[in-house]
Input
Amino acid sequence: MVYPIVVYGDPILRKRATDIPRDFPALPQLIQDMFDTMYAAHGIGLAAPQIGKSIRLFVVDATTLEEEEEDMSGFKKVFINPELVDELGNKWAFEEGCLSIPNIRENVTRQETVRIRYFDEGWNAREEEYSGIKARIIQHEYDHLDGKLFIDYLSPLKKRMLKGKLTNISKGDVDTEYRILAPLRK
Ligand code: NI
Output
């Protein structure tokens, strides 16, 4: 099932999501639905709050992303109850976008490397380190679970410049190729 994507202005995107128990109902189906929803919207990452579920779960698939410096094959993953253990390395800027903030892309500065502890879809405990674009995708999706959005990192000036567009998004007044749930749509 493809869910509509919750967009900017919905309070669920600002809540800290909660861990899920091992007996969380129909988890495999939900994970499949999240991948289907992400693919339908041509995204490379999707966090559960973006489909209206305030739980600590996100999926990524950047295997189709063609990167010259980085091998993205195999970077299709499910992160359950993740915990960011550490962020290391130099800060670097990279242009980010978000399915919940359609048609806005801005440079965001983050650290190069992350260590993340999580459970995979088979509930195996893992702790891994990622750098570069992979770290970037993880940092962006992880932020969703803490109620943070990439626009929070922008300068006050940039934010002011985006205000009108963000208001339009929350009213559903934005062109997307996927179904959205806009909080202020009349
Ligand atoms: Ni996002």
Observations:
- The first strand starts at residue 5 and ends at 6.
- The domain at 5-181 is CATH 3.90.45.10 (Peptide Deformylase).
